[in-house]
Amino acid sequence: MSSPAPAEARGLRVRSAVQLLLLGAFLAWSVSAAEISPGSLVDARALDGLGRMVRGMFPPDLSPGFLAVVAGAVARTLAIGIAGTVLAILLAVPLGILATPTLFRPGALGGRDGAFAAVLFAAHLAARGTLRVFRAVPDLLWALLFVVAVGLGPRAGALALGVSYAGVLGRVYADLLEEVDPSAAEVLAASGGRRETLVLFALIPQALPGLVSYSLYSLECAIRSASVLGFVGAGGIGQELQLSMRLFEYRQVSTLLLALLGLMLAGEAVSRLLRRAMQTARERGSAGAGPRGRRLLAAVAVVSVGLSFQGAELLGGADDGLLRRMGRFAAQLFPPDLSPAFLASLRTPVLQTLAVAGAGTLLGVGLAAVLGPFASGRLMLPVPGEPGRPGAAGPLRRLLHAAVRSALAVLRGIPEMLWVLLCIVAVGFGPFAGALALGLHTAGVLGKLWAEALDEVPPGPLEVLEAAGATRAVRTLWAAWPQARTLVASYGLLRWEFNLRASALVGFLGGGGLGLQLYNAVQLAFYERVATMVLLIFALVVVSDALSDGLRRSWLAPTALRREVRRAVGPRVVLEARRLLARAP
Amino acid sequence: MTFSLHGVRRRLEGRAGPVDALADVSLEVAPGERLVVLGPSGAGKTTLFGVLNTTLLATEGTVRFEERDVSRLTRRGLRAVRRRIGTVFQQPRLVPSLTARQNALLGRVGHWSFAEAMRAWVRPSPEDAARVDAALEAVGLHHRAGARGDELSGGEQQRVAIARVLVQEPTAVLADEPFSSLDPTLRDSMGELLLGVAARGRTLVAVMHDVDFALRHFPRVVGLGAGRVLFDAPAEKVTPAMLAELYPRASAERPGTPGKERADVLACAR
């Protein structure tokens, strides 16, 4: 019953109208600046090139020799992902604890006063800043930097993932520790417990399920990322793909694509199974496996981590030359090149990066809005246990549902960096290829997430509209979308944040924007310029995240958001949203 | 006949296997008639309601709306029938993020093509807008037209649901225990609104717990028990004995059944 006062309501309306107008203007500008030319998609030459590629892809190269190469690449990709995640966890645990405000704010529980507290507070702020930098620089960019620092190969990939995922995980750990119900810690603090005691005995045990679940999830994401790091020479299946593309060996490309798609979907399935197993274990109130099972699990984990470190060339090769080389490279980054001439030359690439992100997001949102409803079971399939409902799903609709779901799986299963390579074949080098690539991948991700959001919509209003004679499409438009809009909007914003990071990089592969300049500067060893551009990307990401955070907050007042999301879809999707956030390193 | 049901059986998948929610129901409702269906929980009232508004098919028997056999309709024909039947559900079922005005506008959905539905998002047609204004005026909510569905109180939401039916301009109105989510003080005003909807020559079929209200306002009463019509009589011929048979003591004491049914019956019988 708390309707805002009329004046306030008008103010809100005006503000959101202005925001929408600005957003619309930005998107319109991006479409023109990203040199979107649908014509070039159906241009005869482009079609010819695409046709040649597609024809060239059949049949996939299944010769034993090449399959061995593929298997090796997949294994290395897994190794990079696992080793990277383990490194990330090792880094994120101390940084995350140090970044938890409830522990290190002045006057925190169990803290002491005096100079030591001030030092700790400074360390706390530094930890938060470090995590922010780790997080805001995209993983592919970290990979590029590590390739320069430690050389080509999986080692650079694992280190890059370690740093970039430490940024995400550290933040998530800090959030989870902060959200823990403080009463247990207060009891311990009241009885004189020190901070270390509080962390070990009050905070971590309570936050443990969340900590484990996010760490596992980031493993899935890291394997996903590991498959593209190879595009900048950081090992894994991406490197093989890049090589086969360069050599125009399209039959090999299609084998590698299939392997990659399988890897992605298997990763998704395994992590879904693990999460479900953990949830049922939690609901049953036991740890799931018995002591023997747990010992087996631990052994498997230790062995696979060991093998991964071996595979990622992190063992044995850790000669002291490695650290020295990394240090030398870091020193070469300073001072960043801030000469006016160079800065002026970055204006166009920066604008292009923004345009690629905007146009890509717009394309993805549009496609997902069309495809999402078809992938939703609630909108497409009959209510179970209610046979004999008129107008129930015919076989054709089931088929359509299944087809759209698999199309979305393929769209999101192929990483956007790979889409860039494919789009370049279709439309040539330039920002259009970048925007198209981001759009296709975004459509796959958003289409699935939106379909899930539509699945969880309360059915009452849908039934009302059905009873009043509305067509399925009209029901979707007026009852399904409006009820899901909180989630729809926040997923959309999250994708924008993700796409901006990606659009800074699509240029590595010829997709326009800052990436090309960055790649060239690395190749030419202009490291002061590299430093400037990394700083610029960092700044862009920080500003865009702040802006979209502001939008999120004003579109969906935070408390209302939390309440509405919980009510509409339950904690599962909240978790999913947090994961998505975590996924955009 | 607005509705005519012959030997309707409807099977539902219950937790303990299939059950016949409707065992054998025959019923004729003439245009402009006002009819109330009484019965204990589990008698099949809501299933009957679903069969009448054509969102459930009969497992056996025929259901006709305005002489058209519902089971033989194409999807298009079904939609044409549905837009002529207005439905007031137990819960208001508004779309929470839309305003009262938009929710009322949803009465028109049956008439819209997808393109028209898109256009209505931006700006409803002048005719639709006029209908919405009139309907909100009629339910006394004109001052709350811009409030979101989830900002309205329970009573206001149910009034918007009634406005939605007014906007639909149906020939028949179905109401499934429209007051059960309201507190008793709101019941009478809401009842009047509902009767007002049916006043303009529309057929009204209501399913209700409130025996007292039903007998006062509906000329024809149908008693439904265990999926069968136990009696079908003018209101003045309904005797306490008939009601007692309809609401056996056991049903009032079944867990989950509100005890008020029994209380209503007793109050009425006295």
In short:
The complex is a heterodimer of chains A (585) and B (270). Chain A has 25 helices and no strands.
Description of the structure:
The complex is a heterodimer of chains A (585) and B (270). Chain A is 80% helix and 0% strand. Chain A has helices at 6-33, 38-41, 44-56, 64-98, 101-104, 115-136, 139-150, 154-179, 183-190, 195-229, 237-246, 250-284, 291-311, 320-332, 340-345, 347-375, 377-380, 395-413, 416-427, 431-455, 460-467, 472-503, 514-523, 527-555, 558-583. In chain A, α4 (64-98) runs antiparallel to α10 and α22 runs antiparallel to α24. Chain B is an alpha/beta fold and 270 residues long. Helices cover 39% and strands 24% of the residues of chain B. A six-stranded mixed beta sheet of chain B has the order 6-7-8-3-9-10, with helices on both faces. A four-stranded antiparallel beta sheet of chain B has the order 2-1-4-5, covered by helices on one side. In chain B, 45% of the residues are buried. Mean pLDDT of chain B is 84; it is low at 250-270. The A-B interface holds A 1-3, 9, 385-391, 460-461, 463-471, 473-475, 477-479, 482-483, 485-486 and B 12-13, 53-57, 59, 70-71, 73, 75, 78-83, 85-87, 89, 91, 93-98, 106-107, 109-114, 117-118, 121, 146-148, 151-153, 164, 168.
The helix-and-strand class of chain B reads alpha/beta
* Rg of chain A, alpha carbons: 25 Å
Number of helices of chain B: 11
Under CATH, the topology of the largest domain in chain A is which? MetI-like fold
The proportion of strand residues of chain A reads under 5%
Supply the number of helical segments of chain A: 25
The CATH superfamily of the largest domain in chain A is: MetI-like
In total, the number of strands of chain A is 0
Distance between the termini of chain B: 36 Å
Task: Quickly give the CATH architecture of the domain at 1-84 and 220-270 in chain B.
Answer: 3-Layer(aba) Sandwich
Strand order of the largest sheet of chain B: 6-7-8-3-9-10
Write down how many β-strands of chain B occur, each being a DSSP E stretch of 2 or more residues.
10
User: What characteristic shape of chain A results from the CA principal axes?
Assistant: globular
